[in-house]
Design a protein that fits this description.
354 residues, alpha/beta
Length: 354
Amino acid sequence: MSRHVGCFLVPDEQVDHAKLRHHGDVDARPGMLDFAVNVQGSAPPDWLRNRLAARLDDLGRYPSAAAESAARTAVAARHGRAAEEVLLLAGAAEGFALLPRLAPRLAAVLHPSFTEPELALRAADIPVARVVLEPPYTLDPALVPAAADLVVLGNPTNPTSVLHLADTIRALRRPGRIIVVDEAFADAVRGEPQSLAAAADPDILVLRSLTKTWALAGLRCGYLLGAPDLLARLNHGRAHWPLGTLQLEAIIATAEPNAVAAAQQRARTIAVERDSMVERLTALGVHVHTPADAPFLLLRVSDGELLRKHLADRGIAVRRADTFPGLGPDYIRVAVRGAAEVDRLVAGIRAAGV
């Protein structure tokens, strides 16, 4: 398998936009056992559903400024920040869509990683340098071009499950450069040890999502943390009422201490389930990239495309990973699941002869 490693500027006409647009939900048809999407559970927990249901009678009114302020205040308290350092988003994807408003001359995107940031930047005709890391996908600040005034990376990184050191991310800082850290899966890491969400660095933006831990993919909730002047640039020109009443309620509810504690309990469970999955998949002869710290694993097999087809025929969805720059068709990504679901995955892989 051939692939690019290092840093290189890819002209837009040479980019496969269809691959950049691909997301795991496309790989999972209704009724399939879903290892393709990283959402934990099929619906929000009962307590959160009840909080949202209690606000249904309020949908006849526009979201209030007080509710928006309460949501920003709740997020700020959760991360030890000031309310003016919080920008609420209609899903983390909106945060990526806003990045072109920073008007970078050259954006560097670290790969393999979530492709939405590169897609949004390219759609705005912003030059993008791909910084493609090779296994073990360790962040090397020296690979990022000095001319890049915007750097985007994930932590932990999708799909490699690599958790970069906070100090290494800070080593990317340069005068005139903005760093965007996608922490969509950070609350699924025990203790969030490398998170920069609580750090008030003036040139670092941290993006968070409620989608994964709280099974809220259909509600679209997230937020950015950063310096007020950067957030003001991103917020400029947005439509009035960018978030609805239920989105604001979800953000408030999941920022409360009991919810944060519940998320950390879930993170501990994920860690146990992930270790078990690594052991079981490795025993099958599947190469599992480790160390892994996210609620998903990157696998390499002899024929990933054929394995995906075999598993799909058995009603099991896994995420193709050749859409991530730097990875080829022998790579797939699987969400961390419980023992009963993994039993079916192992049986499917064994039946496929991998």
